[in-house]
Write a structure and sequence with these properties.
β16 and β17 form a beta hairpin. The protein contains 14 helices and 18 strands. It is globular, with a radius of gyration of 23 Å. The longest helix is centred in the middle third of the chain and has 23 residues. It has a single domain, classed as Alkaline Phosphatase, subunit A (3-Layer(aba) Sandwich). α3 crosses α9. It has about 500 residues and is an alpha/beta fold.
Length: about 500
């Protein structure tokens, strides 16, 4: 039984008293939430963060109407861990979801075996949807879930409505119907998935119970692979690319992979534009329904853009000036486009340079709703209320733990950011790297040898945190070791 289902009669009574005592007029003053979560959108994919190839006028206007965070971090460099952290306010290590679900199997050719983690978000975990629902909120989910199979879907985790959320991390049938989605059937042949999710979200806003506040959580499948052009915008970007670029897309080696160095993918740009169109539609609907003054809007991504792949290939996106992308613990893999517009709290056009992380959304939303914080639940998150009001003072320590192999060519490792210093531990390569992000946000100058004392301090702090959290570590692959030690038989020459 979930924690939130205890003492139901008491809570229902309390809710009844509240509703009876409060006039209908007060409902209009309650704080609503519209949460946009984009899949695989990198920090540099929006105009507000400097993109010149992608065009995101609606997202940029949202940034100008609220607060843009220059150092907003995902708790993981792949999908499921970050999604779990948003839902629970808890670190992926604490909920034991450190890889995308179900992750990739161990391979005999790798020197390390990555640990097994959970295949779903446990029902015992309390989600932000459940926490808000305890206080009378309507909760609506649309899009990508990727936190478990049937029995662990959004409606099992506090959402009243689920449109399209299931166990898969990408649309099995692609972005044009049929999508092969077990909980969302197309209305017409060739229907575009993002358009449909937007329509359903609009319908929820129009049909909702106006006596209650709401959480609308729109979790896009865009811009995750498969990269399929959005027909409404593809011609524009193909023309733009033809005029702007010459020659092959530049790349660079990234350890055992290859990284893309230019934003020039027309199909990907059109998929970004589909998200931007959707954001524009929903923001306009808030205004039309006179909800814009009491609705907090949050815009975020689950990890960096996919820019790095293995075996000589490279990804569809580019995260420059940040290094690498999805799967990696460099900034390109974990720093995200982050915007919060909180009417009456954030100043239009404000910018915060203080780092924050995805676990912070849970307590921040409670705080913005005027509800008591629940530190035993969102134990790894902090309310951003002071930051939203303009206080950028103080620094925190952030940890990432990704002990798995990934198709981006990432090998097991972990990292820590303490102030401006960031250290990445590579277990596969048996080395570490040290960067000063204030001077080198692109992580190009490894200071591990120049600053051995700082590297030692951070390695010790990271190891202590892993021990305290009970983080699962990769282990040696005995099959790999035995093969490596096996003598090589010389071939006879003819």
């Amino acid at each position: 039984m979930k924690t939130t289902k205890l003492c139901v009669p008491l809570r229902l009574c309390a809710l009844c008293i509240f509703i009876t005592a409060a006039p209908a007029l007060d409902a209009a003053k309650q704080t609503n939430f519209l949460f946009f979560l984009v899949d695989d959108m990198g920090w540099a994919d929006i105009g507000a963060n400097g993109s010149t190839f992608h065009e995101t006028p609606n997202i940029d206007r949202l940034a100008k109407s609220g607060m843009r965070f220059t150092q907003g971090y995902a708790a993981g460099s792949v999908c499921s861990p970050t999604r779990a952290s948003i839902m629970t306010g808890r670190h992926p290590v604490r909920v034991d979801i450190t890889d995308w679900i179900p992750g990739q199997a161990n391979h005999p050719a790798n020197p390390l075996l990555h640990p097994e983690d959970r295949s779903h978000l446990p029902l015992e975990e309390v989600t932000i949807a459940e926490a808000l629902k305890e206080h009378g909120y309507q909760t609506f989910f649309a899009g990508k879930w990727h936190l478990g199979d049937k029995g662990q879907w959004p409606t099992d985790q506090g959402f009243d409505i689920n449109i399209g959320g299931h166990h898969r991390g990408s649309p099995p049938g692609g972005y044009y119907a049929p999508w092969n989605n077990p909980v969302l059937k197309a209305k017409r042949k060739g229907e575009y998935l993002t358009e449909r999710l937007t329509e359903e979200s609009v319908k929820f806003l129009e049909d909702r119970d106006e006596s209650k506040p709401f959480l609308l959580y729109l979790s896009y499948y865009n811009i995750h692979t498969p990269i399929q052009a959005y027909k409404k915008h593809i011609d524009h970007y193909q023309t733009k690319a033809a005029k702007a670029f010459e020659g092959k897309t530049p790349t660079e080696p990234e350890h055992d992979g290859t990284n893309r160095l230019r934003q020039d993918n027309s199909a990907l740009a059109s998929m970004v534009a589909a998200v931007d169109d959707s954001v524009g539609v929903l923001l306009a609907k808030l205004t039309e329904l006179k909800l814009d003054e009491n609705t907090v809007v949050i815009f975020f991504s689950d990890n960096g853009g996919l820019s790095t792949l293995q075996r000589g290939r490279f990804g569809p996106g580019c995260n420059l000036p940040l290094r690498a992308g999805k799967g990696w613990l460099y900034e390109g893999g974990v720093r995200e486009p982050t915007i919060i517009r909180a009417p009456g709290v954030t100043q239009p056009g404000s910018v915060s340079h203080k780092p924050m992380v995805s676990m912070d959304f849970f307590p921040t939303m409670l705080d913005l709703a005027g509800l008591p914080l629940q530190p035993k639940r969102h134990i790894d998150g902090q309310s951003l209320m002071p930051q939203l009001k303009g206080n950028d003072s103080g620094m925190r320590t952030f940890y990432w733990h990704y002990p798995h192999y990934h198709g981006s060519a990432w090998k097991p490792g972990a990292s820590i950011r303490d102030g401006d210093w960031k250290l990445i531990e590579f277990y596969h390569y048996k080395n570490h790297e040290l960067y000063n992000l204030a001077n080198d946000p692109g992580e190009r100058h490894n200071l591990a040898k120049a600053k051995p004392a700082e590297a030692k301090r951070l390695r010790a702090k990271l190891a202590a945190w892993q021990k305290r959290m009970g983080a699962k570590m990769p282990t040696p692959n005995s099959d790999y070791e035995s093969k490596a030690k096996r003598p090589v038989r010389k071939q006879k020459t003819k």
